[in-house]
Amino acid sequence: MFNYALKNGVLVTPGKEIHSGVLKVHEGKLVSRDSAVAIDLGGQSCVYPSLINTHDHLQGNYLPPVGPKPGSYYLTWLPWDNDLKASKTFAERSNLSREDLYNLSGYKCLFSGVTTVNDHFPQKLNGQILPTLPIRAILEYGLAHETSSYDLKWGDGVEVEHERAVKNKWPFITHLAEGFDEESMHGVANLEKMGILDSHCLFIHCIGFSDADIQKVAKAGASVSWCGFSNKFMFNVTCKIRKLLRAGVNVSIGTDSSATGSYNFLEEIKYDRELYRNMYGEDLSAKTMFEMITINAAKAFWMQDRIGSLDEGKLADLLVLKGRRDDPYENLIAASMEDIELLVLAGTPIYGELRFLDIFGGSAPGDYTHIHVGGRPMFVKGDPAGLYREARRKIGFKKTLDYLPFDPDPETPSKNT
């Protein structure tokens, strides 16, 4: 285990004033005890809880995206699924194994500062793969695809999955109101009839919510994952985000897969903020967005006792960014993949500038490889460059995946199709 302290950083955590100070890590957790190894950030870096993505489909992260025909949009998700499976993107993606796609998606998360994500598939499909990823993809959840007649019947059934979530203090996660057909519009009512509208529920998309639905969800203490980019791309509308926030709903942010969504989490939060401005003519504060992608997301996963803030006793999941803006909240929302200096999962560095790895003393020779991002030599857990090269070999040409911020073969031009 790595035991160390980060000093002279700007510490940014939910519920507390921003301040300069020391963050101490011992055996994977944040502690108050002193450490023999101190890493001086020089007062130039901001330290945040690492980011949490509450909705992705890790098997589906491939480019280019697939969407409606020009000038039209979908009424619900099912026509999109049909278009996807008939697309060149899907045929090309099929050259890669499920393990390939999941590992590429793990690095999609890592390179955007995300250390915790939900993969919206049943554990029977992903349970063996998720523990092998370079980040934390949670396995503790109940699951349904959705609640309409064209539900894909993931998991063991809505009632069984919800009961399991309640028993184990997990989230129960389902797409809800992802569209405007008759059935999608009755998602909340369907769950009410089943008696499972409660604080364990994490609802994805929710674009068809009525005002009454929003009040019911707020009263139940349920959470919502806002996927603005994917919603606009597929449906030309997103959820009633301002009403959700004003009702006190616990809102987090998800990317959905890159087949319809933003190509990484940092781009998603920028897009969602601009979308809010365009919808309402007012700003969604950077502090509110910071809470959405840290403590709100942790609450949605029923993991707020372990992640989502820099409080003592929690797991040391840390994101260190270059301090490019005076306001640390704005600094996070404006950040790009090139601004990440260090990413830590449960105390263990998984990505960062080489200067940090030297101070940590390195690790077993096979644990890390080196890449260049934005002209900087970086260390990273595993071998994403080798994975990228192997994916290109299977695809048959030098494919570009924009969520990977480096080129493992820079000597020849890349392309997307």
Jot down its keywords:
417 residues; alpha/beta; Urease, subunit C, domain 1; TIM Barrel; 2 domains; 18 strands; 31% helix; 22% strand; globular
Task: Give an account of the 3D structure.
The structure is a single chain. The protein has 417 residues and is an alpha/beta fold. The chain has two domains: 4-50 and 308-385, Urease, subunit C, domain 1 (Roll); 52-300, Metal-dependent hydrolases (TIM Barrel, Alpha-Beta Barrel). Helices cover 31% and strands 22% of the residues. It has 15 helices and 18 strands. The strands form three sheets. Strands 1, 2, 3, 4, 5, 14, 15, 16, 17 and 18 form a ten-stranded mixed sheet that branches. A hairpin with a 2-residue loop joins strand 2 (19-26) and strand 3. Helix 3 (98-110) crosses helix 15. The longest helix has 16 residues, at 265-280. The relative contact order is 0.16.
How many independent structural domains? 2
The level-1 CATH class of the largest domain: Alpha Beta
User: In terms of structural class, how would the helical and strand content be classed?
Assistant: alpha/beta
The N- and C-terminal alpha carbons lie at a distance of 43 Å
Beta content comes to 15-25%
**DSSP strand tally:** 18
Level-2 CATH architecture of the largest domain: Alpha-Beta Barrel
Provide a short characterization of the protein structure.
The protein is α/β, with parallel strands linked by helices and 417 residues long.
List the helices and strands and how they pair.
Layout: E1 4-11, E2 19-26, E3 29-31, E4 38-40, E5 45-49, E6 51-56, H1 77-85, H2 88-93, H3 98-110, E7 114-119, H4 123-126, E8 136-137, E9 142-143, H5 158-168, E10 172-176, H6 187-194, E11 201-205, H7 211-220, E12 223-226, H8 228-235, H9 241-246, E13 250-253, H10 265-280, H11 286-292, H12 295-300, E14 318-322, H13 328-333, E15 340-345, E16 348-353, H14 354-360, E17 368-373, E18 376-381, H15 384-395
Helix pairs in contact: 3-15
